[in-house]
Amino acid sequence: ECLKRWIKQALSSGLRSFIELGHKFIEKMRYILNWFKKKITSAISEGFNNKIKRLKRMAYGYKDIEYFKCKIHQHCGLLNPRLNTLKTT
User: Fold this and answer.
1) How far apart are the first and last CA of the chain?
2) H or E, element range at 39
3) Helices within 1-89 (DSSP H only)
4) CA dihedral angle for residue 25, residue 29, residue 32, residue 38, rounded to 10 degrees
5) Mean pLDDT by 10-residue block, N- to C-terminus, for the chain (89 residues)?
6) For residue 3, what pLDDT is reported?
7) Are 86 and 79 in contact (CB under 8 A)?
8) What is the model's pTM?
9) Hey, where are the domains in the chain?
10) Is 43 in contact with 14 (CB distance < 8 Å)?
11) Around Cβ 32, how many Cβ atoms within 10 Å?
C-alpha cells in the first residue's frame, strides 16, 4: 500500500526523474513484492549468467559447443574434477 502511494506521488510530481522511477517501479512491482512475500530473488541465476558471459569473453568464442558446455559446467561447479563426470543432484 505504501509503495503504491509513493508511486502515485512520484507520477504526479512533475519531475521527470521521479516519473521515470515510478514507471520502473510499476514494471518491476511484481518482483519487488515477490521478495517480501517469498524471500526469493533471481540472484543465483544472474550469478550463473555472469559466469557464463565472463567465460565466453575469456574464450574468444569456442568453436566446439560441447567443449563450451563442459567449461560452463566446470566453472559453475557442476563437474567433479576427480571423476570428470557431471554431479547428479
Assistant:
1) 41
2) none
3) 2-11, 16-38, 43-59, 65-75
4) 170
5) 91 96 93 84 86 84 80 76 57
6) 86
7) yes
8) 0.48
9) 2-38, 43-86
10) no
11) 11
Cell of 35: 521478495
Q: What is the pLDDT of residue 81?
A: 60
Residue type, 55: L
Q: Do 7 and 26 touch, CB atoms closer than 8 A? A: yes
**Neighbour count for residue 53 (Cβ, 10 Å):** 10
- Contact between 59 and 68 under an 8 Å Cβ cutoff? The reply is yes
Contact 22, 7 (CB under 8 A): yes
Residue 31 has which C-alpha cell?
518482483
pLDDT, position 58 = 81
Q: What is the DSSP annotation of 61-75?
A: --S-HHHHHHHHHHH
Number of residues that this document lists for the chain: 89
